[in-house]
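Tutorial handout. Part one gives the primary structure; part two gives the three-dimensional structure as tokens.
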Amino acid sequence: MRSAAAWALERATGLRLRADAARWRAWLRAETLWFEREGERLGRELRDPSAEVAIRALGELAGHRWRRHELARVASSALEHGGPRVRRLACLALARLGSGAARAALERALEDEDEGVARAARAALETLGLAPLGEGSPAGAILGQRSRNEFPWSRNLRRCA
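Part two.
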């Protein structure tokens, strides 16, 4: 049970603290304190008209993994920023956070007037495993085509039906 819990924590956070409960508790305390102290400020900074302020806030957000779904919702607000560079970096930060909570915002960003933002949004959706399987997608090219070679067992299944 302990090794399964350690594996799940490592997978969810990207950290390698092994099965050391004291280190995990310390990490959780630090993350909780950071979120309570800095979460509101970062939300304000993401809406700041200055690209430098918003980019710094995105970088700080992307460095954390606890409560990542909430962080993704906060970071999604940067997709509405006036600067295309901020919007592109928001897509990268959302992909790094690894949360599907940003799906709707990233799908809206596919229609962004800046082509670089639209490409970054598509890449983020693909990284998150949320991109529609379209013609331009490598996964869509592979999964969207039916094989010309039918497996013998599929003919047997049809005969039984």
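Part three, for discussion. The two ends are 43 Å apart (CA to CA). Residues 2-133 form one domain.
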